[in-house]
Design brief:
With 98 residues, the chain is an all-alpha fold. It contains four helices and no strands. It is elongated.
């Protein structure tokens, strides 16, 4: 695997997290397209924010092989980032509409 592929998988996991959050919590949903966009940006933002702790794509591939523990942490953070993005954006939208 390359660094780019790990980043793309991370973004895809964030999209899954955002769409699953929108599916489970209907009041936070923006629809499939809106949740997907929120998932992309949420996963990228959270990985960039917390990836400095050592589970970014470059750190995962540093030894030339995939470090599965760091990759798992990366996927979990991306999933959470996608879900949080949907919730935070919907809350922001509701506050701006008041």
């Amino acid at each position: 695997m390359t660094d780019t592929l790990i980043s793309l998988i991370s973004i895809y996991v964030g999209i899954i997290g955002a769409n699953l959050t929108g599916f489970i919590f209907k009041r936070f949903s923006f629809g499939t397209i809106g949740n997907t966009i929120a998932g992309v940006f949420g996963s990228i933002f959270l990985i960039k924010l917390f990836g400095r702790f050592g589970f970014d794509a470059i750190s995962i591939m540093r030894s030339g092989k995939v470090n599965s523990i760091l990759f798992s942490i990366n996927a979990i953070v991306s999933f959470i980032g996608g879900g949080l993005a949907v919730i935070l954006l919907k809350s922001l939208k509701n506050k701006m509409n008041k």
